Amino acid sequence: MHVLQGELRVRVQDQDHQLGPGDIRLLPKGVPHTYRVQSVKGGRFLAITPRGDFERFVRAISRPAERPELPPPVGPPSADAIQAISAAAAKHGIELVGPPLQ
């Protein structure tokens, strides 16, 4: 993960890391990891994954953009959305562990 803009909190196993623009953190496959954008104005980062496993998962749960700018935040996902994301993750060999970062 290479942070381009904003501030992120990244948890790898049980260690938290604060990342800002220019920072890079390895999030290894098979090691529990998650992140949360801490910046009020959001954040941007690059995620580079080998073999396309994660890319196929992201494409499966994505939908086309409705306009050029990002949509406004809508809060936590619904129970149905969580179930759909979990099912897609399992189909792509990804195990979701929680809870999400607060």
Please supply descriptive tags for the structure shown above.
102 residues; alpha+beta; two-stranded antiparallel ribbon; 2 helices; 22% helix
Mind explaining what this structure looks like?
The strands form 2 sheets. This protein has a 3-stranded antiparallel β-sheet, with no helix packed on it. It has a two-stranded antiparallel ribbon with strand order 1-5. Helix content is 22%, strand content 22%. It is α+β, with helices and mostly antiparallel strands. The protein starts with a strand and ends in an 11-residue tail after the last helix. The longest helix is centred in the last third of the chain and has 13 residues, at 79-91. The mean pLDDT is 90.
Topology, element by element:
Layout: E1 2-5, E2 8-12, E3 15-19, E4 33-37, E5 44-46, H1 53-61, H2 79-91
Antiparallel strand pairs: 1-5, 2-3, 2-4
Q: Give me the secondary-structure category.
A: alpha+beta
What composes the largest sheet?
Answer: 3 strands, antiparallel
Quaternary: single chain
Estimated share of beta-strand residues? 15-25%
How far apart are the termini?
A: 20 Å
- Helix-strand topology string: EEEEEHH
Strand order of the largest sheet: 3-2-4
The total beta strand count reads: 5
- 3D shape: globular
Q: What percent of the residues sit in helical stretches (DSSP H or I)? A: 10-25%
Q: In terms of per-residue confidence, which ranges show pLDDT below 50 for 5 or more consecutive residues?
A: none
Quick structural gist:
By secondary structure, the protein is an alpha+beta fold. It is built from two helices and five strands, in the order E-E-E-E-E-H-H.
